[in-house]
Model the fold of this input.
Amino acid sequence: MRGILTGLHRALREPLVHFLAAGGALFLAFQLVGDPAAPAPGDKTIVVDRDALLTFLQYRSKAFEPEHFAEKLDNMSAAERQRLVDEFVREEVLYREAKAMELSKGDYVLRRRLAQKMEFLIEDLADPRAEPDEAALKQYFQDHRDQYAAAPAWTFTHVFFSAEKHGEKAAREMAAGLLPDLKTAEAGFSDATQFGDRFPFLQNYVERTPDYVASHFGDAFAAALADRKAADGAWQGPIRSQYGYHLVLMTERTPRRLPDLDDIRNRVAADYRRERMQNARRRAIEDLRSDYTIRMADGFEDGS
Done:
């Protein structure tokens, strides 16, 4: 326990004395090596007191906030408190009987759940809700700025000729033959529905990313569209997709953009807290591991 507290103190630079006072007993309950508060074998007495109910409430909620749950317990009606007592007693009876029957032996699911509960407790110690100061947030944003870049987006409409319906050659010739007519008529964004075949997806694409377009038309179509910047504002094609041939009117391209911190401050702060918690959890587990001696069995020394 001393190791995890030292590790978290080093990771977070925050005193954890308040946790020792309020949650030390909860921490001990999660130890995988045993439960020091467990009843002796054959003990048929269940003591229901304030501490037991507060502990039960916090375990059940996976939130270790003694003051909050103390207030909740004090404000319960008699009926609500009785229901809580009944639930506590029911769980305690089942727990003791299962332990007496040694049902936990060889139970990997239970082992994993105990390990997960330890992780929950470590995460609670990390307190990821604490807001970063401005300097820390700006530094985090600069270090991770590329991951917040807004993808480029395209706005276009198209006329489709199905290769399955008309055949490969005929579909391409139909598209090529229509292209001069669309240019001469100066057909606009809303005119595309008057021509061609029904496309399996959309007619008009508004501010869609290249990845989204590729998911509908195929990678080759998206790549061809990306290479036709000089033709924006005019009908172009034919462009082959995985379904046939298209005439395309590109009306707008939004380039890849790096937003300012103020535009996505809440998102960056949430990511900062998440990373902070993950680092604190990793360091705490490493600190716990340092208290153990790891002995590799024969044949495993080389990591095989």
